[in-house]
Amino acid sequence: KEPAATIVETLKDITLYEGEDAVFECKLSRETAQDAQWFLGDVPLQSNEMNEIRVQGTCHTLILRKVTLDDCGPISFKVGQHTSAA
Fold this sequence. Notes:
The structure is a single chain. The chain is an all-beta fold. The chain has one domain (7-85): Immunoglobulins (Immunoglobulin-like, Sandwich), CATH 2.60.40.10. Helix content is 0%, strand content 44%. It contains no helices and eight strands. A four-stranded antiparallel sheet has the order 1-2-6-5, with no helix packed on it. Strand 7 and strand 8 (82-85) form a beta hairpin. It starts with 6 loop residues before the first strand and ends with a strand. The mean pLDDT is 93. It is found in: Cytoplasm. This is OBSCN protein.
């Protein structure tokens, strides 16, 4: 059984103007097949026209396109038992 991935580089808080893209990155200790999930508040995020979720090796990236005041709130990334928030 593979050891669980841990978060080695946590999310950073950012401040933007309306209409800008918000980019969040989280780095893991290893590439993993475990479920990794992004959240805005308690809402799980999916890749769609407003959100882009990318995985490149151990780097997980969330891009929120053209943010509005409605997008203000805590962003979190969860993998296994580990969580990072901004």
